[in-house]
Specification:
The chain is built from 12 helices and 18 strands. The chain has about 350 residues and is an alpha+beta fold.
Length: about 350
């Protein structure tokens, strides 16, 4: 027994939020140790990986012809199996201080709407990192646990998790998802909408990084009391030269209108299909927002107006999924109860 408890103490059990935009890694007993972009830089000539995570993001859009930067995750699922496996191994080794001689138990948050084939791809990638056991948890469930919701009680909890690739809306009661929807419209789609709008309106080509910066600084889902603006730089598509212009929050809100409307409609549909007994609980408890995409300015105000129920944020919206998965590492019974095949 003494040896077993010693090994448990040394064990590097891992919880992972394998996101389209960002990967977060939580180590049992230590908390979140990795919070890096899900980006890999590859040398096409040698097929070698040049950088992963933060270093790779620094290279994004600035690499020479022989080096490409890719996101191996697309819409919350694996788009490139081999690269995802290498990225996962890198992050886990980095989180465990490069020592993987004790095979960890791994809990991974996945979108609730993915197929069996996609689930298998995630599980296989984790197994190849020398995991002893791999558990898959639906992201809205993990986010609800990370947000501190009483998921095991017979009462309705509604959570909206807006990540980079997917938006998850779920009604949770008694440790199960009563009704949920997963759509592949989220933060990345917002970035693309901004870039397309600027290209169409101003004939200005901007990069992914600039579009994300615009969204974070002046992107809004509901009118602001005071107008915001920012200077942006890009390439003029008519003259082919660098150009600078100033855009404001009204324009960005117009660019994001379709994407936001899709997310709002999904939430309304889930509310409409929720059993009345559980829906009644939302009047007091309200809706909880998690995920990086939920931090769009005034999104809570827009949702409050559209749904008529209170809206609030989890204490740590960006980290909620990985925190929830990390909590499950310490509650094996609940983990086995809500893990999916």
């Amino acid at each position: 027994m003494a040896i077993l408890s010693f090994l448990n103490m040394l064990s590097n059990d891992v919880a992972i939020d394998l996101g389209t935009a960002t990967t977060l890694v939580y180590i049992k007993g230590k908390g979140i140790v990795i919070h890096e972009p899900s980006i890999v830089a590859i040398n096409k000539a040698t097929n070698k990986i040049e950088a992963i995570g933060k270093e790779a993001k620094e290279m994004f859009g600035r690499t020479p012809g022989n080096i490409i930067t890719i996101r191996p995750m697309k819409d919350g699922v694996i788009a490139d199996f081999d690269i995802t496996e290498k990225m996962l191994t890198y992050f886990i080794k980095k989180a465990c201080n490069r020592h993987l001689w004790l095979r960890p138990c791994i809990v991974i948050g996945i979108p609730s709407g993915i197929t069996q084939v996609e689930k298998r791809a995630v599980k296989d990638s984790a197994i190849k990192t020398k995991a002893s056991e791999v558990y898959l948890i639906e992201e809205p469930m993990a986010a609800a646990i990370g947000a501190g919701l009483p998921i095991t009680e017979p009462s309705g909890n509604i959570i909206v998790d807006i990540g980079g690739g997917t938006t998850e809306v779920a009604v949770i009661s008694m440790a199960g998802i009563v009704y949920g929807q997963s759509i592949r419209v989220a933060g990345n789609e917002m970035d693309m909408a901004i870039a397309q709008y600027i290209k169409k309106k101003y004939n200005l080509l901007i990069g992914e990084k600039t579009a994300e910066e615009i969204k974070i600084k002046i992107g809004t889902a509901y009118p602001l009391e005071q107008n915001l603006s920012m200077e942006i730089k890009g390439r003029d598509l008519v003259e082919g030269i660098p150009k600078t212009l100033v855009i404001n929050d009204t324009e960005v809100r117009e660019a994001l209108s379709e994407t936001i409307a899709t997310i709002v409609d999904t939430i309304k549909m889930v509310l409409e299909r929720t059993p009345p007994e559980l829906a009644a609980d939302f009047v007091d408890k309200g809706l909880i927002l998690t995920g990086g995409g939920s931090l769009l300015l005034n999104l809570d105000k827009r949702l409050r107006e559209e749904t008529g129920i209170p809206v609030s944020y989890a204490e740590k919206p960006v980290e909620a999924v990985v925190i929830g998965a990390g909590i499950l590492l310490q509650d094996t019974n609940l983990l086995k109860r809500i893990a999916i095949d």
